[in-house]
Amino acid sequence: MPETVLKLEGIHKSFGGIHALKDVSFELAEGEVHALLGENGAGKSTLIKILTGVHKMDSGSIQVRGKSVTIEDPVDARHKGIGAIYQELSLVDSLTVAENIFLGHEPTKSFFGSIKKRELLDKAAKYLSSFAIAVDPSAFVGDLGLGQKRIIEIIKALSINANILLLDEPTTGMSRAEIDTLFKIMDDLKKKEVNMIYISHHLDEVFRVCDRATVLRDGQNAGTFDIRSVDLKTLVKSMLGRTLKEEFPVREGTSSEEMLFEVREFRTEKMFAPINFSLRKGEILGITGIIGSGKSEIALGLFGADRSVQGNISIAGMAVSLKSPDDAKKRGISFIPEDRKGQGLFLRLNVEHNICVANIDLAISKGVVSNKKKSQLAKDTCERLRVRPLDIKMAVQNLSGGNQQKVVIGKWLCGEPDILILDEPTRGIDIGAKTEIYSLINYLADRGTGILIMSSEFREMSAICDRILVIRKGEIVGELVGKESSTEQLLTLALGG
Predict the structure, then answer these.
(1) 66: exposed, middle or buried (C-beta count within 10 Å: 0-12, 13-18, 19+)?
(2) Considering the entire predicted model, what is its pTM?
(3) What is the pLDDT of residue 255?
(4) Same domain, 59 and 187
(5) Domain end marker among 406, 434, 456
(6) Same domain, 171 and 233
């Protein structure tokens, strides 16, 4: 039997009376990649933050290689050989690759002396070379792609001699080639006796790289499974507490022939090329391509967030000028951004404020803002989208990623938009929450809302869209009927085949 590297027993954690973890136990064996699975809000992030010293557990015990330990803070976690790569990057763009890797423990000439820059670069180059990563250690991190940044995060964690590595949604925003490189690095790390806890909502990745999986549901253990002997349906049922009948709900209605949104030769300062397309009332139109193809630039331009330099836009046959998000909102357009934390939320403010900030007119009574109406609006929205925990006074930064995404969506759905633009709406969301969002998209389309979805998830696009436009380097290179398209067709067009 392999040695147990990490053992957690009876972990409890509450926030303001809400139980985040209840009697959770977990074991990581030597040479193992162990998946930690569960719906958004199941307690995964809380458990990881306890392991890395961000949160203190209320009760329970942690053992590292058979020795009981107390993890005081993130620095203490690093000293105990625990490193973490979070979904949100922690690198400093204005520093070099080498400076980021050794940030906080740079080689110096004396205790109070200056940094040994040559040694810093040489040590960083050695780490990069050991993983066959062709990155200049003197390059600024801000000039790197997302996939390269994630690999630098891993090397940064290993530079402190981490033996237990926590990877939280590490493939978010990475291309298929970058994901393959990451998995090769993980295989190499296993050979070097680095033990890993892997958190992902992409269950195909779990089956590809993990040895075992522990599932949390509502803050409690729901089972530990050997990946070689478990199937997808069993894992999903354990996560949700029920059998998921349809990942992609069947849509009852169809789009009308009435033209709702027309875009002609439109381009902003940040778009690669002008585009042309139309959207009918009640239609679900997808725009897809590989990472970096220009999807987000199109979305931001159509919402008035980036200045247009040419082209025309009409809504219901009337020419409109969208010079700002406020213009777009007044014209019945809502936008769910890809970067929910940077563009969609006020993280330190509560759920109620985030939902009502764009819909304050709905909370006005007799000429003044009604706190009662604000609270009711926020509560109704959270109940509709199953935000967990259902606490509208909780700071958004304390919610899981999937529940933060639901708050962003709820904020813009309150106004019942005529046109809804969604940029990567299911990124970082568990399979149950994805299905809820797909059902919501179908509901909105059936009541006449024009839906424009930007996503690099080809399987998602094929399943939920009426039509799909494929873009490459900002240009539309193909159009397919959603249900008749395949992942292979979309990928071929996106790559230039």
Answers:
(1) exposed
(2) 0.71
(3) 80
(4) yes
(5) 406
(6) yes
Are 328 and 303 in contact by the 8 Å Cβ rule? The answer is: yes
> What's the length of the chain?
497
Which helix (H) or strand (E) segment holds residue 115: the answer is: none
Are residues 216 and 105 located together in one domain of the fold? yes
Give the β-pairing of 308-315 and 318-320: antiparallel
Our measurement of the distance from residue 450's CA atom to the centroid of its chain's CA atoms, rounded to an integer in Å, reads 24
Q: Residue 497 has what pLDDT?
A: 60
Quick one: angle between helices 146-158 and 117-130, nearest 10?
Answer: 110
Residue with tokens 């159009």: 479
In whole angstroms, what separates CA 364 from the centre of its chain? 34
Q: Give 143-158 pLDDT, tens digit per residue.
A: 887 778 888 888 888 8
Q: Which domain does 317 fall in, by range? A: 245-332+417-497
The answer to whether the CB of 289 falls within 8 A of the CB of 472 is yes
Question: Over the stretch 208-252, which tens digit does the pLDDT of each residue have?
Answer: 999 999 999 989 999 999 999 999 889 988 988 877 777 888 887
At residue 44, what are phi and psi to the nearest 5 degrees?
Answer: -60, -50
Question: Which amino acid does the sequence have at 350?
Answer: N
Q: Which long-range contacts (CB under 8 A, 24 or more apart) does 63-70 make?
A: 63/4, 63/6, 63/7, 63/8, 63/9, 64/5, 64/6, 64/164, 65/3, 65/4, 65/5, 66/4, 66/7
